[in-house]
From TrEMBL:
Gene3D superfamilies: STAS domain. The lineage of its organism: Bacteria, Pseudomonadati, Pseudomonadota, Betaproteobacteria, Burkholderiales. Residues 163-274 form the STAS domain. Keywords: Phosphoprotein. SUPFAM superfamilies: SpoIIaa-like. It comes from Massilia aerilata. This is STAS domain-containing protein. InterPro entries: Bact_StressResp_Reg, RsbRD_N_dom, STAS_dom, STAS_dom_sf.
Length: 287
């Protein structure tokens, strides 16, 4: 367990020599060895200064050496900001943790001078402070990883949105060209995008083109049927295009019932059917 009896004295020394500690800390970070090159110098200076201020305040308020306690809330806010900004800048978890670990040397130098005449106290203060900074370093890794995971999830969602565009081909006619594997998550996005576009545009025909889908298995077929059923509930009919010979054989082999669904070999053929159903074939030819 961390001995916190030395924390008030350490806090006073950190606050008294805050400028010198920050200058030495920044000098280490500026060498590039500690992985700070992805962070702007002004931002890095602000983070160092905020860290030292929050650290001294937490040491004065701490009573149990628990960084999850209320006394360390300001410190956690600072580390959350450091971890988040460095995750966005492309730093690694170890680089982010090293930001905290690298402050040990300048703080230890101050302690060495402050407790020079009390070697036993100096050793105990070193150990207590080292344990606390280790906890803070590990905390930054945890926060960094959570932030990076959130970024990955958001990017995946954005890619799903970009990979399932719903295009309005004509008045009342939508097209959804699918490219790549259709898994459960993407199928849900497909359904949501199609239904929302039907509501927004008032379309009565939606063409689902699977030319770019490499394989059609039972799961893909089920997703397509669910999307078609949902579109019908919204008052729109679906046409499946891009049925290549291999896919047609697979669908027959799987026993998927597409008797009530219009299918075409190409998107162009499906578009002509859509124009006929919407009664705009003549308008399309004249235009």
């Amino acid at each position: 367990m961390t001995d916190t009896s030395y924390f008030p004295a350490i806090a006073e020394l950190v606050q008294e020599h805050r400028g010198a500690i920050r200058a030495e800390w920044e000098a280490q970070l500026d060498k590039g060895v500690l992985g700070s090159r992805r962070v702007r110098k002004e931002e890095q200076r602000s983070q160092c200064d905020d860290f030292l201020g929050a650290f001294a305040a937490a040491l004065r308020d701490d009573s149990a050496g628990d960084i999850d306690s209320r006394g360390w809330s300001g410190m956690r806010v600072v580390l959350d900001d450091v971890s988040s900004s460095r995750a966005k800048a492309g730093s690694t978890p170890s680089e982010t943790a090293t930001f905290v670990f690298s402050v040990k040397q300048p703080i230890f130098a101050v302690l060495r001078a402050g407790f020079a005449d009390r070697p036993a106290v100096l050793a105990a203060a070193f150990w207590a402070l080292s344990q606390m900074l280790d906890k803070l370093g590990l905390y930054t890794v945890e926060v960094f990883q959570r932030g990076r995971d959130q970024i990955v999830v958001r990017q995946q969602q954005e890619l799903l949105e970009l990979s399932t565009p719903v295009i309005q081909l004509w008045d009342g006619v939508l097209a959804l060209p699918l490219i790549g594997t259709l898994d459960s998550m993407r199928a849900q996005v497909v359904m949501e995008n199609v239904l929302q576009k039907i509501v927004d545009s008032g379309a009565t025909i939606a063409i689902i083109d699977i030319t770019g889908v490499p394989t059609v298995d039972t799961l893909v077929a089920q997703h397509l049927m669910k999307t078609i059923a949902a579109a019908r509930l919204m008052g729109a009919d679906c046409i499946i295009s891009g049925i290549r010979p291999q896919i047609a054989q697979t669908i027959v082999h799987l026993g998927v019932d597409l008797q009530n669904v219009t299918t075409k070999a190409t998107l162009a053929d499906a578009f002509l059917v859509a124009l006929e159903r919407t009664g705009t074939m003549g308008i399309a030819r004249t235009s």
